[in-house]
Amino acid sequence: MKTKLMLAAALMAAAVLPANAGEPISGNEWLSDCTSKIQIRPILCMIYARGLADGLQLWALTNPESARACIPVKVRTEQLKDIGTRWITNNPKLRHEDAGYLLAIAFIDAWPCKETSQ
Q1: Is 39-118 in CATH node 3.90.930?
Q2: Per residue in 24-73, pLDDT tens?
Q3: Quick one: which of 33, 21, 24 has its CA closest to 98?
Q4: Angstrom distance (rounded) from CA 81 to CA 106
Q5: In the chain, what are the domain boundaries?
Q6: What's CA 38's distance to the chain center, in Å?
Q7: What is the C-alpha separation between 56 and 94, in angstroms, rounded?
Q8: How far is CA 94 from CA 17, 27, 29, 99, 108, in A?
Q9: What distance in Å separates the CA atoms of residue 108 and residue 56, rounded to the nearest whole number?
Q10: Which of 8, 26, 38, 61 is such that its CA lies 20 to 30 A from the CA of 46?
Q11: Do residues 56 and 74 lie in contact, with contact meaning Cβ atoms separated by under 8 Å?
């Protein structure tokens, strides 16, 4: 059942994606998705945040000495969205930058990897 719901959500997302869906989005666009009243757009916002967080978690797992964000395994998608929206909202002069870059900074700020002593 859960797989069917995820497939349905992915199909709905694909149906409403803009023609330039392969291009990076800005922090302004991502924040707009997160706060939109159009039902699918907040879901797209959370999918974006979760995908980036999953990539950063994989980086920390496979190459811990170079990882900068150590996101907890059990972090919830809503929490990722909250951290990202708060950081971007509090840094309005950077909102035009790439959303992935801004979210990465927000996640590094929230969950920095502890430096290991040599």
Answers
A1: no
A2: 899 999 999 999 999 899 999 999 999 999 999 999 999 999 999 999 99
A3: 24
A4: 10
A5: 39-118
A6: 19
A7: 21
A8: 24, 8, 12, 10, 16
A9: 9
A10: 61
A11: no
Long-range contacts of 93-97 (CB under 8 A, 24+ apart): 94/27, 95/26, 95/27, 95/28, 95/31, 96/26, 96/27, 96/28, 97/26, 97/27
Q: What integer pLDDT is reported at residue 4 of this predicted model?
A: 54
Higher pLDDT, 97 or 117: 97
Take residue 38 and report the two structure tokens written for it: 């159009």
Residues in CB range of 40: below 8 A, 6 or more apart: 12, 13, 16
Nearest to 72 by CA among 110, 17, 38, 31: 110
Contacts of residue 92, Cβ cutoff 8 Å, sequence gap at least 6:
none
CA 59 to chain centre: 15
Single out the residue of 36, 30, 66 nearest to residue 49, CA to CA.
30
